[in-house]
Amino acid sequence: MADKGPPAYAWDWFSRQKLLWREARSRLASGGGPLAGRYAAVEDRRDVLPLLRADYPHDPDVRRAVDETIAEVAFLGRVDVRFAELGVRSAPRGMRWWWTALTGEPLDGPQAARQAPTEVPEQLVLGDLAVLDPEPALDDVAGGYGDRRH
């Protein structure tokens, strides 16, 4: 993870997930100390997100709250498996960044290309198909909906 915090696209994804930023704010507001007062005083996205973005790189409590919220809510606590096992199709770039930051599993860039499976799944070829008897298939079509036999 970069010292300056997550990139803009990761924050953009996070900010569009209302459950995530509201839960992170709630966790920080219910904690103790001056941090709780700051986060209890704000509720709107336009107020919460700038605070989180500013505090994340410097405050370990904010970092822990955001990271734990993403791990528990977005990834359902399943950060101990490979990303492919989550079954997320076409994951947004920001979501993939958070996954890599939390688990260390590279999903983008040269490391991900090196870890990509080199094994190509076996392709089904027409020779593998059983020989079909065309006669029953034609009978089924002739007896379909709307067909009348005289």
What does this protein look like?
With 150 residues, the chain is mainly alpha-helical. It has one domain. Helix content is 53%, strand content 0%. The chain is built from eight helices and no strands. Helix 1 packs across helix 6 and helix 2 crosses helix 5. The longest helix is centred in the middle third of the chain and has 15 residues. The chain is elongated and about 75 Å long. The mean pLDDT is 82.
Shape: elongated
Content-based structural category? mainly alpha
Q: What integer is the average pLDDT?
A: 82
Number of strands: 0
Radius of gyration: 26 Å
Beta-strand content estimate: under 5%
List keywords for this structure.
150 residues; mainly alpha; 8 helices; elongated
Write the layout of secondary structure elements.
Elements: H1 8-16, H2 18-29, H3 34-40, H4 45-55, H5 60-74, H6 93-103, H7 110-115, H8 134-142
Write a concise synopsis of the structure shown.
With 150 residues, this protein is mainly alpha-helical. Helix content is 53%, strand content 0%.
